[in-house]
């Protein structure tokens, strides 16, 4: 088992006669932190960590019928995940990388035979980490609403108009 995305297993199997392979390539994982820059007169600014960015994954999947995969069926499942906003576990080997949603996909129908049978679809998908709940330790800063007072103006008061 190479990994799993939702209910789509990535693996290679061979029973002596038939091969079934669904693999991905070019897995790129990115993340980082968001920083606020505090300027100081005559000195270099200071950086303050504000929060941590959501993790992003990008990968390419080759859906090939000659490797025992129904390309249209797997693509339909990926599109369904994307359009429904389904939260997917992404497992690499035996390591759970986290929960993700598909934020975009790009599918190229590479080989189409007679009667429209699709033999190969290359799909690029972008996943973004999904955080289900807010951590209870987050501090919420509120400021009180400024009170306004009503002021009566004398009826002869001309509010900016030019008097004759």
TrEMBL record:
A UniProt-annotated Pfam family: Phage_P2_GpU
Q: Which domain of life is it from?
A: Bacteria
Output this protein's name.
Phage protein U
**What is the native source organism of this protein?**
Propionigenium maris DSM 9537
């Amino acid at each position: 088992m190479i990994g799993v995305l939702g209910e789509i297993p990535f693996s290679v199997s061979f029973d002596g006669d038939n091969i079934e392979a669904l693999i991905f390539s070019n897995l790129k994982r990115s993340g980082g932190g968001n920083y606020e820059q505090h300027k100081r007169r005559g000195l270099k600014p200071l950086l303050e960590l504000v929060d941590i960015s959501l993790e992003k994954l990008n990968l390419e999947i080759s859906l090939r019928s000659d490797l025992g995969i129904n390309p249209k069926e797997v693509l339909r499942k990926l599109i369904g995940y994307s359009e429904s906003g389904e939260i997917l576990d992404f497992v690499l080997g035996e390591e759970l990388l986290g929960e993700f949603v598909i934020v975009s996909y790009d599918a190229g129908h590479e080989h189409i035979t007679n009667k429209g049978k699709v033999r190969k679809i290359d799909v690029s998908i972008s996943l973004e980490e999904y955080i289900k709940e807010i951590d209870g330790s987050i501090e919420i800063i509120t400021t009180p609403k400024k009170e306004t007072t009503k002021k009566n103006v004398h009826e002869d008061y001309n509010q900016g108009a030019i008097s004759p």
